[in-house]
Design brief:
It contains ten helices and eight strands. The protein is an alpha+beta fold. The protein folds into two domains: 82 residues, Arc Repressor Mutant, subunit A, CATH 1.10.10.10; 175 residues, GAF domain (Beta-Lactamase, 2-Layer Sandwich). The strands form two sheets. The chain has a six-stranded antiparallel β-sheet with strand order 5-4-3-8-7-6, sandwiched between helices. It has a two-stranded antiparallel ribbon with strand order 1-2. A hairpin with a 6-residue loop joins strand 1 and strand 2. It is globular, with a radius of gyration of 21 Å. This is DNA-binding IclR family transcriptional regulator.
């Protein structure tokens, strides 16, 4: 089990900011609990939650009971552990624009995966990082995939570079200002990032060795909205097979991914 940690410093700092005129202590308690449990797939005991949040046992007890009643948190059968339910996940996928985009993307991604014999995923910008909102595996027994619902770095992933490169200047600056480093994220200074984003804009895509895994080439194209900004990034973590199977090449996969991204961009018009 992952060691429980208190809610992130930016979150707690925002809640405790001196210029925060509209305080809602009860809401802050509930959000602290949800954010804490989000990083604990096996759940935590009430005592562990109390210790990690630094709040009183009685207030945590009352808040936990309300979250259980509202079905945001589940209590284990033994009654001694608490974990997140899938309610937040379901609510997130009820958001109409995202739900529509995912619904449109999945059939197109299925076609790509079949043609390229590679997996692919779709990521959107969300609160300082990239959130994986759709994932399709390739037909082969071998492949590289990114877990649905995972977050990947904004500065060290092909998806992040594409989302930044195909955003207008104001939106790009806001995304960078909101950026939060993830565990293991490779840092990049402003000059190097600017050079990468310039190349991505010129090429129209990002293609290069993964900064997370050896032997993987990340290929990523933007899915563009009517305003020309990237709504999402469509990415293939390409793995070259070295057995006797003659599958599509890296360039074949890039061509298929371009077709998929263009098709999805046209659907947003």
């Amino acid at each position: 089990m992952t060691k429980p940690t208190a809610p992130s410093a930016p979150t707690r700092a925002a809640a405790d900011a001196p210029d925060d005129r509209y305080r809602a202590p009860a809401l802050d308690k509930g959000l602290d609990i949800l954010e804490l449990l989000a990083s604990q797939p096996q759940g935590l005991t009430r005592a562990e939650i109390v210790k990690a949040t630094g709040r009183g046992a009685s207030e945590i007890y009352r808040m936990l009971e309300r979250l259980v009643v509202r079905q945001y948190v589940m209590r284990s059968l033994s009654g001694d552990r608490y974990a997140l339910s899938l309610k937040l996940f379901a609510l997130a996928h009820m958001h109409p624009p995202l739900n529509r985009l995912v619904s449109q993307a999945l059939p197109v991604m299925d076609v790509f995966a079949s043609r390229a014999e590679q997996s692919c995923h779709m990521g959107v910008y969300d609160r300082g990082s990239v959130l994986i909102t759709a994932q399709v595996n390739g037909p082969s027994a071998w492949g590289m995939s990114t877990r649905l619902g995972a977050r990947v770095g904004l500065l060290d992933s092909a998806s992040g570079h594409v989302l930044l490169a195909f955003s207008d200047a104001e939106r790009c600056q806001r995304m960078l200002a909101e950026h939060t480093s993830l565990d293991g994220e490779v840092p990049m200074n402003s000059a190097d990032l600017a050079a990468v984003l310039h190349t991505v804009r010129q090429q129209g895509y990002r293609q290069g060795n993964s900064l997370q895994s050896f032997g993987v080439v990340d290929i990523s194209y933007p899915i563009l909205g009517v305003d020309g900004n990237a709504l999402a990034a469509l990415t293939c973590p390409y793995i070259r097979r070295i057995d006797l199977h003659a599958g599509p090449t890296e360039e074949d996969a890039r061509a298929y991914l371009l077709e998929a991204a263009r098709a999805l961009s046209l659907m947003q018009a």
